Amino acid sequence: MPWNPEKYHQFQSQRSAPFDDLLQMVDIRPGLRVVDLGCGTGELTRRLADSLLESDVLGLDSSPQMLERAGEHARPGLRFELGNLAEVGGKWDLIFSNAALQWSDEHKKLIPLLYSRLAPKGQIAVQVPSNHNSNAHLSIIEAAGREPFASALGGWTRQSPVLPIEAYAELLFREEAQEIIVFEKVYPHVLENADAIVDWISGTALVPYFERLDSLKDDFVNAIRQDLRVLIPGEPVFYPFKRTFISARKAA
Ligand SMILES: C[S@@+](CC[C@H](N)C(=O)[O-])C[C@H]1O[C@@H](n2cnc3c(N)ncnc32)[C@H](O)[C@@H]1O
């Protein structure tokens, strides 16, 4: 997918709050082998690496555009590689991922696969947005079902693979994981107006639509803009953003 680092960075301060919460869940020990799945532009991977003493951190991402920016943060103990998070190899003391696993399907297979990549005593610590039933996301699906977009998309819409929180707890329990923690948190964002929400989703949820819509891209954004101005009127607007946090440890 053609990620746009500039667009993605527009809401950096709102996006770093869940990263901070996820970092709080990490059991900090010296000398960890760490992978950050879907590391994006690397600033947060760098913060992760800086808070883990003597760690060896790999940031993995499938977007060359994002990785180009990430490369600026490389240093001894922190490197970046192109790759698919669903095919991560090796054994890790910490598998970390902030706001990326929602781009990979089949979480019922993905979570056990990632868990299998943990070394003994290893920890998985993951955050995924779970706001797929928000007005903004439902508007995307709704607009994608209307013409001319439905024909251009061939009927395709992107359905979130994110599961209910109890499903993640159960998947980890079946793997005999220890110290299972799964919860959902609402981030109470206040944005200037409905257009700001469209700007936000233009850097994330709309990205897979953009590559399929080509010359209809701007019309699609405008259609969603019109819908959201009606659904979420006024200035400023409240944009409650739900996110799921998952952490568990493998036995020694
Ligand atoms: C919303 S950004 C999050 C970036 C960073 N973790 C952060 O918190 O700012 C999602 C990232 O996941 C990456 N991504 C999406 N699907 C992926 C996959 N299958 N394998 C690896 N990276 C992927 C995208 O390229 C993008 O950089």
Key words describing this protein structure:
252 residues; alpha/beta; Rossmann fold; 11 helices; 7 strands; 25% strand; globular; binds S-adenosylmethionine
Radius of gyration: 19 Å
Structural class: alpha/beta
Instruction: Provide the succession of SSEs.
Output: HHEHEHEEHEHHHEHHHE
The CATH first-level class comes to Alpha Beta
Give the low-confidence spans.
Answer: none
Fourth-level CATH superfamily: Vaccinia Virus protein VP39
CATH architecture call: 3-Layer(aba) Sandwich
Please state roughly what percent of the residues sit in beta strands, choosing from under 5%, 5-15%, 15-25%, 25-35%, 35-45% or over 45%: 15-25%
The gross shape turns out to be globular
Main sheet strand line-up:
3-2-1-4-5-7-6
* Domain module tally: 1
Helix content: 25-40%
What is the number of beta strands?
7
Protein model, in words:
The protein is of the alpha/beta class. α5 packs across α8, α6 (135-144) crosses α11 (217-231) and α9 (194-202) packs antiparallel against α11 (217-231). Helix content is 39%, strand content 25%. The protein contains 11 helices and 7 strands. The chain has a single domain, classed as 3-Layer(aba) Sandwich (Rossmann fold), CATH 3.40.50. β1, α3 (43-50) and β2 (56-61) form a beta-alpha-beta unit. The longest helix has 15 residues, at 217-231. A 7-stranded mixed beta sheet has the order 3-2-1-4-5-7-6. The protein has helices spanning 5-9, 12-24, 43-50, 64-70, 107-116, 135-144, 149-153, 165-174, 194-202, 207-213, 217-231; strands at 33-37, 56-61, 78-82, 92-98, 118-129, 178-191, 237-249. The radius of gyration is 19 Å and the shape is globular. The chain binds S-adenosylmethionine.
